[in-house]
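User: quick one - fold this with magnesium ion bound?
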Amino acid sequence: MPHTTPIILALAGNPNSGKTTAFNFYTGSRQHVANYPGITVERKEGFLRAHDRDVRLIDLPGTYALTAYTEDELVARRGLTPGGPDAPDCVINVLNAGALERNLYLSVQILELGLPLVLALNMHDEAEKQGMIINCGRLAELLGIPVVPTVARSGIGLDKALAAAVQVSLDRRAAKSSGLGGAKPLDISYGPDLDPVIQEFTALIEGNEALCARYPARWIAIKYLENDSEIRDLVAAADSALDVRLAAGLEQVTRHLKSTTGSYPEAIIADYRYGFISSLLRQGVVTRQDELRNRVARSDQLDKVLTHRFFGPLILLGVLYSMYKITFGLGEIPMGWVEAFFGWLSESVSGLLAEGLLKSLLVSGMIDGVGSVMGFVPLILTMFLLISVLEDSGYMARVAYMMDRVLRAFGLHGYSVMPFIISGGIAGGCAVPGVLATRTLRSPREKLATLLTLPFMTCGAKLPVFLLLAAAFFPGNETSVMLIISLVAWGMALMIAKLLRSTIIRGESTPFVMELPPYRLPTLFGVLIHTWERTWQYIKKAGTVILAISIVIWASMTFPELPEEMAAKDDSSAARLEYSFAGRLGKSLELVTAPAGFDWRVNIALLGGIGAKEVIVSTLGTAYSLSEEDIAAVEDSDDTTSLQSRLRGDPNWNPVNAAALMAFVLLYAPCFVTLAVMRQETGSWKWSAFSLIFNTLLAFAVAVAVYQVGMLVI
Ligand code: GDP
Ligand code: MG
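Assistant: Sure. Structure tokens for the protein plus magnesium ion:
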């Protein structure tokens, strides 16, 4: 007779959430201590009458999770076994309302067990003091269970919680006796890796009735994946064949997860549970009234200065400038180590191998290629680190806010400013991290326009070319030349952005979200993780492409080899280069490039420059047959005097030539590393190809114009 058997209620919750206080309130002195055989942890029981029913109330030990590591947890679990001897009709889960997120972790697990549950959000007084506003109705609605605010110490809300639990129990018993079954266990997703395994396990476990009488099959499946010792023993004892299959499945998924995510099932299950809880809480359950208000107030104060009409842009310039300085100043140190390492590697390999093609391929093709990719890593790491800090702190949103009006006129976005600066908006940047920095742009059109125009900036690899030509043909005016180049770079980038945004990437600009998030201190761990993830992507994706391309460039400058009879006459590197595929290409291109004033030597250097702009000056050195030491000096780009005088003395060269070449170098195709990261960021080679062709045509048009007009003038 269901009416006369007492209702069994269990009090569960984290340690110190107020269970015993509630238990004492409910039971007064009518309580006694029970022990499970063989376990020292005590379990208190009491009897009371509520709503004309006999109620047996069990105070379970405090626990954070339903794992099987401690005796407390094992006792709590036994008291919560749906098919066990003391299976409660309903659990009253006492939570510390001030730490809902952590406390709900247990609640979710109880719901997964399929046990009826009432939440007592205890210590409500303290939560309120902390300025938290908890919407119990919303939480009840989201979880589909009663939620009652309580203050156990003063007994507030406890009667209501008890009444709800009794009601739930009675409903449950009525449903059971009319054959409607019990509560449906909570079913949350554990992600694409684990969900299919859980499903498969569940189906297998459902074949064993004895197991399913104790726990829901899905719960056993999840616990098995968590490698829960008690559940594994239980399954092994019930059905050894099943255990073998599940163990194999567990091993397989563990291996898979380890190789793909570096994590293991138990950790991922915990992550998804917390994910479920935090998304729950974000749906209007908790508002931190005071804290939020304070933070907003503090932010407003900061914003009075940081986005001030006059000081705001000044501070912004300062921040951008220091960001630039730090990226290239700090990044340069490890970059030097990486370069030194690859230099050492080149030399050691050179020393080991005999003169010949294999050596040349390994040293000039592969090691130098990989070295140039790896050389960027420190830069990219530093830049992402700083960007993450600016983003997480909330300052990035202010940067965008201040820059937006200016950049919007050109079809760009406030966030475009950072990628431009990084790429060389202040001379000496690099388009590779610049392209990667466009990730902060959320609108695809503005991101594309930014990414396609930032290669016009004066990157560090173009600088030696400008310095060489300025020193050779505009002596005394180097600074002005550099300033003009920087201005032309910005002007071109903005104009072309405007052009692109009103033609091929036409479309509404994203409305700028004016809401500025309150400032907050970024967490070190979050910043580090994101920095590393972004950098690793670069190494993996760009690296393979670049290795392939540097081999192609090496081959085109090496083959075909100089025939014996010609080598006997002239075996200089210039002669070999002239005879190679690249040399021939350079020669045949003279037809096209003559209007811009470029001869075949310049053409080869420019072709090589598509591989990497650093190559331009050293290839010019080779093509103009400098001595080995002079080429070495030019390659280190600290002494170009010999090349300077060679160019100045050459009758084919004059200041107009030089100006046309500078314009071309500034604007033409981005280097291959940039093209590779463009492909990575846009998801297709289409835009890399566009950039390669469009920029080169544009550069050519400008160079021709400069040369032709210049020749008329002088
Ligand atoms: P248990 O570990 O879950 O059994 O927690 P206890 O019942 O022993 O309570 C832990 C501490 O919290 C005790 O000092 C209680 O007096 C205090 N406490 C319990 N409920 C409340 C409450 O609603 N508000 C406040 N401020 N303190 C409480
Ligand atoms: Mg206690």
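One thing worth noting: The domain at 7-177 is CATH 3.40.50.300 (Rossmann fold).
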